[in-house]
Structures are given as C-alpha cells and as structure tokens.
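W.,

You were right to be curious about this one. When I first looked at the sequence I had no strong expectations either way, so I just let the prediction run and decided to look at it fresh. Below is the sequence, 279 residues in total, followed by the output.
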Amino acid sequence: MGVLKRFEQRLEGLVNGTFAKVFKSEVQPVEIAGALQRECDNNATIWNRDRTVVPNDFVVELSAPDFERLSPYSGQLGDELSGMVRDYAKQQRYTFMGTIKVHLEKADDLDTGLYRVRSRTLASSESQDQHGRPAAGPRTSSGAPTSGAGYPPQPAGAPPMPSTPPPGARPQPRAGGPGPGAVPGAQTRRWIEINGTRHQISRPTLVLGRSTEADVRIDDPGVSRRHCEIRVGTPATIQDLGSTNGIVVDGQHTTRATLRDGSRIVVGSTTIVYRQAEG
C-alpha cells in the first residue's frame, strides 16, 4: 500500500470524521501530502553515498477562509502530515537533519481552495528562533528562494547545506528531466493518469476536454470541450485553451505551467497526474 493511501486511511476516522467535513473545498489532505513529497524530491541533496538529506520543516500556506476552517485542527493535521513525510522518507531512504514539522499559515493572496508549500532544512539545535519561527531561509515549492516571509537569515553556527555534493557523490537527477549520468539519446516516456487509467502521450500535443474530438475525453461538466493542452518539450508544459473554469497545477490557478513528474492538474472536479520517465 502506498504512503499517500495509508495517509488517507488514517485521516478517515480522525476526530469522528471531522476532516471529511472541513475538507469539502478544493484543498484535499492528499494533495497537500503529495506536495510535501515533491518538496522532498525536488530539494534532496546527496551528502555522500549513504546519505541524502531532504527538508524537515514545511509551511503550508492556505487562503484566509481555508486557514480559519482548518486552524482548530492544525495540530493533528500537522502531526499526520509529518508522519506521512517520515513514512515517505523511509521508503525513499532519505534522511533529515532535525525534527519533522509541518505548519499551517494564512496567506491573504491565495483564493479559497489554493495552497502553497515552502520547505527548509533545519538542524535540531537551530530549528527555532526566539519567536518559535523556523530559523533558515524559506524555499518555495519549486525550490526557488523567496524573501519577505518573516523568516530571519540562517543564524551563525548553523550547519550549512552544501551547494555542491561532496567529492565522489553522484548528483541526483531532478524530477522532470534527466540528470548527469543519463544515457545519451534515451527516450523520455510521458503519460497522464486519470482515475487510475493511463493515457500515453505519443504526439507533440495532447488536447484534453469534454468533446469527443479531444485527444483525451474527460466526462466532467466542469470541463470545457477543448479545456487544455499538454505540449511535449524540455520541459513539458500545459496550456489553458480558454476554458470556462481554468486549470490548477500543483495547487496554483494558472493559464500555463511547467510540468514535472508527479505534477497534479485539476480541471473541473477531475484530477490528472502527469508522469514521465527515461528509457
């Protein structure tokens, strides 16, 4: 059984089914859990042959309405999400520099149903400043540094993360493309998964929509006839085709986005998972 499936099952009876009620908006616990998994994958740093370090402190930003609804349960949800990250790290043989923590925060710039994830790697002794805030600088879900989020610079004496792997370490490929050591000329296989059904992407563009003329037909009243289009490239991208309800990619409303392995695309009430692999 997968880590995300076990996570969902643990939540089913939590607080007498409270979570089943408070998560009726677009934000679902499994989507947040999946985003935390991607944070680990995308920010993994190989220190040596036996140690790959991943972030251990996460901030999940929610819209004001979602935050107000979930804040009474933030402690239990944070514990469950932390447990999920621990299980996933064990499965992937990742290690941490400190205690795993997941915090919920309010973000006034997010609409209801959207969320944003930031992560950082903190040593146990430096995990909090005098205000209880994480001490290292934040990173966005894409791994790009951010500023102005109320986090002070990393304090003196905190063990730095290496900018390059130690001598002899093999760089780890990033999700969504081959890394150093990839076989030259290797073909990238791409596909999408919808409700457990796999659809191969064997052409430069793949149109998704409710029309029978779409390359992949989605029977969902919230999906337009020609809703969006996946374009194969380096990297692959998705483009909204002027749909009525738009697209959400990895928790963000957008008209165009870069796709990486594991990206979650929401159209109407349907979730699509983009996958790619070498060979």
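Here's what jumped out at me. The chain is about 20% helix and 25% strand. And, maybe more interesting for your project: Confidence is low (pLDDT under 50) at residues 126-185.

Coffee later to discuss?

I.
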